[in-house]
Amino acid sequence: MFDRTLIETYAAGGQKLREAVAGLSEQQLQAFPIPGTWSIQQIVVHLNDSDAVGIDRMKRVVAMERPLLMGYDENTFMARLRYEDQPVAQTLELFDLGRRLWAITLRSLADADFERVGIHSERGKLTLDELMKDYIRHLDHHLGFIQKKRGLLAGGSGG
């Protein structure tokens, strides 16, 4: 049986991301407290782009029979799509709204629908359940980076 509480965890992700960056200045959002890694702003925009891809993948799995789910290079997206120019406030709104709207559909699905399958171009067979869990983990993974960078910025080690 599918754990339906995961839908609410997924839907609450937008609020978690908002809280993670609350109170940061433009300078802090754009800073590189850990050289060679992404800024907090780049992480926020990456999460939004990733979620847009994720929602599309999940929709395909629900609506189609064994759809192809294309992989992509997140570093190329970050470099070529000018993440540093995207306004964080609107990005947070879009991320939150996307998750909350998709959760409406997720709540309406039968437990069996979460076993529907898509074929990822790099990872192979993935169920809707696995995809949703992946996007929950993905956010939590990046929230850890944001927290670490916030701590460095608060300590005056921003770059």
Task: Report on this structure.
The structure is a single chain. The protein has 159 residues and is mainly alpha-helical. Helices cover 63% and strands 6% of the residues. It is built from seven helices and three strands. Strands 1-2-3 form a three-stranded mixed sheet. A hairpin with a 3-residue loop joins β2 (117-120) and β3 (124-127). α2 packs antiparallel against α6 (88-108), α2 runs parallel beside α7 and α4 (40-63) packs antiparallel against α7. The longest helix is centred in the last third of the chain and has 27 residues, at 128-154. The model has no long low-confidence stretch (mean pLDDT 96).
What keywords describe this structure?
mainly alpha; 159 residues; three-stranded mixed sheet; 7 helices
Q: Level of helix content? A: 55-70%
Based on secondary structure, the structural category is mainly alpha
- The overall average pLDDT, rounded, is 96
- Spatial order of the strands forming the largest sheet: 1-2-3
Shape: globular
User: Roughly what fraction of the amino acids lie in strands?
Assistant: 5-15%
Q: Compute the separation of the termini in Å.
A: 48 Å
Biggest sheet details:
3 strands, mixed
Count of helices? 7
User: Would you report the number of β strands?
Assistant: 3
Query: Which residues form runs of ≥5 with pLDDT under 50?
Result: none
Q: Output the radius of gyration.
A: 17 Å
Q: Order of helices and strands, N to C?
A: HHHHEHHEEH
